[in-house]
Amino acid sequence: MKFAAIMLVAAGLAVAGSASAAASSAIKSDVDYLKASRCKGLAQGLGGIDTAALDAALKSERFSRADAIVDRAAEEMARAKRQAANANLKDQLSAEVAGACMAYLSPSKDMASR
């Protein structure tokens, strides 16, 4: 009975681990982490973009990054939000989200509505 319970717990942990690994598979380096943080800031600033997958990936990757990288990522996110508030940059930033940021955002999001 104990063996079956242990196997069930181990299987549950394996499934949970593979889900988080899939969510953060696009974020491999510190540069990717910074780019993903910028994409999150743009997505939040532009609005109407689901960032759930990106939030999970950034959260899981945060603990494997140096404090300086995490701080710089927060700065990039804030800068991207400020840029997204600029009406003159909206088209350019929307194109960035639809292009480069799609590696980090959920692929099911239809960017044609932007």
UniProtKB/TrEMBL annotation:
Keywords: Coiled coil, Signal
Name the UniProt record assigns to this protein: Uncharacterized protein
Domain of life: Bacteria
Signal peptide from the UniProt entry: 1-21
Annotated coiled-coil segments of the chain: 63-90
Keyword check for Signal: yes
